[in-house]
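Hey, I was hoping to borrow your eyes for a little while. I've dropped the whole record in just underneath, so have a look:

——
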Amino acid sequence: MDSPDSPARGVLQQLTSPPLLAAVFVVLLAAVVALLVARLLHRRPRRAAPPALPARALHWADHGLEGALRIAPILAALVTLGAGHYVLGAAGIASVVVDAAIRLLVALVLVRLGVYLLGLLLGPASWAHTRERTVTLVVWVVVGVVLTGWMDAIEASLNRVNILPGRSQLSLWALLKGLVVVSAFVVVASLVARAIERHVMRVDTLAVSTRVGVSKFAYFLLVGLGILLGVNAAGVDVTTLNVLTGAIGIGLGFGLQSVASNFVSGFVLLIDKSIKPGDVISFLDHSGGTGTGNFGWVQELRGRYVVVRDRDGVDTLIPNQNLITSPFINWSYSDQRVRLKLPVTISYRDDPELALKLLVEATGNHPRILRDPPAVSRLISFDDNGIRLEIRFWIADPVNGVNNVRSDVNRAIWRIFRANGVTMPSPQREVRIVRQARSPPPAAPGAVADVGLDQSAD
């Protein structure tokens, strides 16, 4: 009769058999080789790219080299496993473990390259590029489970877990399958939308705002369609989502009203072409005939907000609804020429005709001030502190700044006024102290009344 520990002894003997130990040794050797190759590639010096290649060829050559370096450790492990498989076969030793390891590494190479190409297609800021290793590991684990034949057992176990007990059966396996299918449809829809966006943005015959609008509309339409198709492909009846869509509609009417308003306002801005990437806008403050508050360049038109970068390099996110309901100045809308006004006050002792002439001369040498129409000077009013003058001139490039031109002209006015003896008065006030006569003290209680007042009763 066999002893109770005979099964355990059999398993231990099988695990310590020479064929299995030889296969494990080959797998460990392949892992060590992969680590050594990865460390050598990590320590390699960065060489500059040869300048002889053209820009586009160099671009794709860099991507190809980067992809080859990413899979180089895995390829080294595959070569080691292939050599071990050949040696074990020559020695007449079964290599089932080595064969399984080779299949898993081939799958890892394909998954690694696929995720890398997906990150390149979606862009450097996409989730596939920023989380490349995590996505690769998750997909490889799923593929490995399928290759090893464990998927049927896992599917049977997850199907026994019912998330919604009752008449409607929703198992954990159905939920995970639906998430995977929907994610796959969304990724494909995103790739198609990015391809359409790249093609549309290269059409120079369309306005920039029209190109951005078409790209955004195609992206949201295709992603939404991908979600619906993914839900349908996962086995969920789309007509059963009426309650969910009704709840979303109520949410848009109450809690998401501002989000929906900004989203619709973004499409309105794109359709009416009032603003586009590259425009220079300013809003919320007006002085001297031109807006100077929140002056910046439009960088992006997003679904909920507009990105405006000011001269300090700070990006301001302005909700689309604010640009619809509030006035703002678009310096690049039709004609970029704008007129600037600079007020100047001179003393009453100075000659205003000379000052008006000097103001025009102060704008004559500035490279950004237009000669047509020419700069003009005006006498505006006679104020309390002096004569108020004003110099008016035009510039054609407000995108390069407005206050810097004001500063240059003000400095030129200061220099030319000092050279010609024209003064700018400061506000003066006269304070006069009037001494009032001392009043007599009030009469004491019970004192005799003043003469001439009748104190008697009738």
User: Anything to note?
Assistant: Confidence is low (pLDDT under 50) at residues 48-58, 286-291, 451-458. The longest strand covers residues 338-346. The CA atoms of residues 244 and 250 lie 10 Å apart.
